Amino acid sequence: MSAAKTTGWRASVPFLRVSATKVRRVADNVRRKPYVEAMALLGVLPHKGARLISKVLQSAAANALAANKELDEGRLYVKELLIDVGPSMKRMWTRGRGRADRLLKRSCHISAVVDEIGATEEKANGSEG
Length: 129
Fold this sequence. Notes:
It is a single chain. The protein is an alpha+beta fold and 129 residues long. It has one domain: CATH 3.90.470.10. It has 4 helices and 5 strands; from the N terminus they run βαααββββα. The protein has helices at residues 20-30, 35-44, 48-67, 119-128; strands at residues 9-16, 76-85, 89-94, 100-105, 108-116. A hairpin with a 5-residue loop joins strand 3 (89-94) and strand 4 (100-105). Helix 2 (35-44) runs antiparallel to helix 3. The chain is elongated.
């Protein structure tokens, strides 16, 4: 993550029981899209990660709408969507001839930031003058 403080409204969910690579495949389709378009796309995708990401984005949008009553869902976009690797649970997987393999049950953390469309340009223009 960058050293600069990110603006916008955030939501995160840690320790989800799905592999980070499976969720990243879905997240790559929704980054930098308008919120309404992203939610429509996530509603159609059949992946488990799509359901999880949509819940996190809904929470971030709810945080934005609760903080700013004049804000509309149509003016939000997905600014950041981070999928981090969480801890793996180690389990034993029995094999033939009395052997055992290691089974990793992976997890991930999802963090989302939504911001108002055009908010960064307004702030940049206001700080120059």
